Amino acid sequence: MLHQEEQHLEQSILYDSDSVYGWISILLHWFTAIVIIILWFIGKSIVNALPEDVDSQRQLHVSIAASAWLLIVARIIWRLRSGHPHVRGQTLFIHRVAMVAHYAMLVTVALMLLSGPVMVWSGGHPVSIFGWFSISAPFSESETTKAFAWFIHSNSAFLLMLLVLLHVGGALKHLMFHSDDTIARMIWPGKPSSGAK
Ligand code: HEM
Ligand code: HEM
Fold it and tell me: Which one of 15, 84, 120, 165 is at 20 to 30 Å from 196 when CA atoms are compared?
């Protein structure tokens, strides 16, 4: 009986419940949040770099993005599969707004993960990871495809930053003006509260 209870507690700490995030979601959130913010700034520095620095900045951006690619995809699939814990202490309307913003961020991230490699490959280059190994293009060079992928990548980057600013602003608002556990529950798995859905 005790063994079963311990097992249940371990599971609820690892996986999400209706009202709390588990360790898998928490670790995936913070790891990918850091990587995405770094990628965003390096991506911007490609566009603003001196001509002699453009290639090395692009190489760094592509290498980090390609290394984290699978984990970011796993993070998106994980959220889709495990659903979304209820935003606590909020009206149904606010819960829905937060949820839509979360899913919109994941959609823009997915668009960036797809358009990035397409942009590199359609430019006639392999996706090279720190020069250790490369993934060659599965299709031939095309200026039109490259321009389209660039359009998607660039506009998704803009939209993602707007959403992240809104998201971080919302999280800080909770920290400063509400006495709830919005930030705390994304740092440490709490006790599932019954009937919070
Ligand atoms: C979520 C992940 C990613 C983020 C947040 C991100 C962010 C950015 C940003 C902000 C830019 C500059 C766009 C602009 O200001 O118009 C950029 C450019 C670029 N990104 Fe990404 N990126 C991501 C994933 C990838 C991936 C997976 C690849 C390829 C494997 C990639 C390849 C590139 C390339 C080649 C450019 C520069 C194009 C050029 O001007 O030559 N990115 N990225
Ligand atoms: C660095 C500042 C960040 C802070 C303080 C922060 C904070 C939080 C908090 C407190 C939650 C839980 C909200 C709830 O009650 O459901 C959350 C969830 C979420 N955050 Fe962030 N976040 C940050 C960065 C990011 C970034 C850069 C992304 C970009 C993709 C992101 C995407 C998400 C998503 C999709 C969720 C929903 C749950 C999940 O799938 O992980 N966050 N964030």
Answer: 165
